[in-house]
């Protein structure tokens, strides 16, 4: 089509590049009518919660690129991050259609302030070491898989479709994390200790996953319902990994408010500063 | 000028990351409808939610149909039912194998209820697409793209990719 690569690069208005910004709306052509009897604003708020969980978790996973212990894990973690980024794109786009503002995914991801993010605090904390990251991924994927499985029957057909695809993906994520937790936990004395430490450090963020926000039980799934399944899977992994269930107390809330209310830990600000830096430096730029 | 049927044209478009396969063979091309006045509506579905090739697929379909004389083209994304490797056609499977990528087996049929945890990857017979040996081992369930796993052949010692069943 072009005589040389330079000509292809400089062609104006070209949207054929797979990797870059200026992506087409990921819900293009999907019927995004809000079902009757559903409050669009509530549906949007719920999609933001689930979308932000995926977006911020994806960002923390991407930080392992170039730093993972082996090339295979580098590729695996990047792929898991990409799956979650894909889920985030659909969920944020769904939010913009549901609340009637028609805001796109980029506006939600790059132009909101910290207080407007609705992710649980589990996903925003810095990576510490590989054991911590695998413990977090195990907790996150176990919780999210249980949630997505129930959302397959959502009143919103778009959310139901996103969940049905997500179930297949997150099942792989959970297996990946669980196998690392077992390998390290049931490994050497040192790897066992570090895996136990990682799990213990993640544990204060677990309670928040099941307390939830009133919007969740009204429009989606009451996260309290997920606890039994979560506990059963964790018990199965920890037994195989010869690890102890931590007893670390839950991280305090701020007058009962936490991630779902826009109250985040100190590390969230630094994360967003990096995530949003290019978009804020060059508003509305596409390339 | 319409030189050939819209479906036939759309079926010639190949996947950007697996260029030996058409989107039809991959099961990504779901529907091609020609409406009044020659307006073409093409429905595609992503393999994985994060698949970064969707935009390229959309643009390639659009460009190919316009070249073929269709001036009004709409590309729609359909999310449901979710893509399954069972939709890869027999010719698609043969082309994958010829390109050194082991085709998928049947997708798992999950019963209702919680998805079971698999702490040990289930033993799976995957033949090496290079030498044909059945003696291959899983290296990683994630490879160069989300839809493939990485395996190694113990007979010829070569690594190869395997489209994982979903």
Automatic annotation (TrEMBL), chain A:
According to the record, the segments passing through the membrane are none
Q: Does the keyword Oxidoreductase apply?
A: yes
Tell me the GO molecular function terms. phenylacetyl-CoA 1,2-epoxidase activity
Q: Which InterPro entries match?
A: Aromatic_CoA_ox/epox, Ferritin-like, Ferritin-like_SF, PaaA_PaaC, PaaC
**Alphabetical UniProt keywords:** Oxidoreductase
Leader sequence segment: none
**Is-annotated flag, keyword Disulfide bond?**
no
Identify the EC number(s): 1.14.13.149
Gene3D superfamilies the UniProt entry points to: 1.20.1260.10
Short name of one Pfam family: PaaA_PaaC
EC class name: oxidoreductase
Q: What is this protein called?
A: Ring-1,2-phenylacetyl-CoA epoxidase subunit PaaC
Species of origin: Kutzneria viridogrisea
* Classification lineage: Bacteria, Bacillati, Actinomycetota, Actinomycetes, Pseudonocardiales
From TrEMBL, chain B:
- Which Gene3D superfamilies does the protein's record reference? Fe-S cluster assembly (FSCA)
Using the record's annotation, list all stretches that form the MIP18 family-like domain.
11-68
The source's domain of life comes to Bacteria
- PANTHER family associated with the record: 1,2-PHENYLACETYL-COA EPOXIDASE, SUBUNIT D-RELATED, FE-S PROTEIN MATURATION AUXILIARY FACTOR YITW
A family per Pfam: Zn_ribbon_PaaD
The protein's name is Ring-1,2-phenylacetyl-CoA epoxidase subunit PaaD
Q: Which residues form the signal peptide?
A: none
PaaD zinc beta ribbon domain residues: 119-164
* Annotated organism of origin: Kutzneria viridogrisea
């Amino acid at each position: 089509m072009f005589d040389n690569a330079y000509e292809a690069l400089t062609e104006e208005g070209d949207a054929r590049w797979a990797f870059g910004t200026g992506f087409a709306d990921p819900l293009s052509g999907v019927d995004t009518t809000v079902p009757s009897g559903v409050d669009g604003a509530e549906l949007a708020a719920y999609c933001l919660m689930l979308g932000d969980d995926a977006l911020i978790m994806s960002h923390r996973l991407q930080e392992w690129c170039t730093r993972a212990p082996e090339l295979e894990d580098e590729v695996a973690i990047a792929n898991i991050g990409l799956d979650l980024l894909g889920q985030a794109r659909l969920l944020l786009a769904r939010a913009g259609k549901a609340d009637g503002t028609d805001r796109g995914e980029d506006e939600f991801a790059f132009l909101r302030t910290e207080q407007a993010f609705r992710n649980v605090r589990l996903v925003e904390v810095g990576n510490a070491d590989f054991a911590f990251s695998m413990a977090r991924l195990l907790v996150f994927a176990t919780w999210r898989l249980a949630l997505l499985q129930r959302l397959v029957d959502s009143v919103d057909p778009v959310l139901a479709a996103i969940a049905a695809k997500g179930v297949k993906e997150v099942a792989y994520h959970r297996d990946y994390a669980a196998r690392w937790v077992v390998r390290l936990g049931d490994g050497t004395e040192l790897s066992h200790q570090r895996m136990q430490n990682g799990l213990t450090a993640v544990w204060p963020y677990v309670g928040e996953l099941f307390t939830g926000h009133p919007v969740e039980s009204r429009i989606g799934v009451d996260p309290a319902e997920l606890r039994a399944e979560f506990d059963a899977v964790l018990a199965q992994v920890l037994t195989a990994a010869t690890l102890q269930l931590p007893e670390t107390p839950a991280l305090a809330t701020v007058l009962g408010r936490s991630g779902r209310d826009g109250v985040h830990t100190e590390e969230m600000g630094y994360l967003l500063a990096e995530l949003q830096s290019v978009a804020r430096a060059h508003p509305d730029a596409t390339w | 000028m319409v030189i050939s049927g819209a479906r036939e044209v759309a079926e010639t478009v190949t996947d950007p990351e697996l260029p030996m396969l058409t989107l039809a063979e991959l099961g990504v091309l779901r529907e091609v409808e020609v409406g009044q006045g020659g307006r073409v509506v093409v429905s595609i579905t992503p393999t994985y939610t994060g698949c970064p090739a969707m935009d390229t697929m959309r643009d390639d379909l659009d460009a190919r149909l316009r070249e073929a004389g269709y001036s009004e083209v709409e590309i729609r994304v359909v999310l449901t039912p979710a893509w399954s490797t069972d939709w890869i056609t027999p010719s698609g499977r043969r082309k994958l194998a010829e390109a050194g990528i082991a085709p998928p087996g049947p997708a798992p049929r999950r019963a209702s209820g919680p998805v079971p945890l698999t702490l040990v990857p289930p033993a799976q017979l995957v033949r090496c697409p290079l030498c044909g040996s059945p003696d291959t081992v899983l290296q990683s369930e994630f490879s160069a793209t989300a839809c493939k796993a990485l395996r190694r052949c113990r007979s010829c010692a070569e690594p190869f990719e395997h489209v994982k069943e979903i």
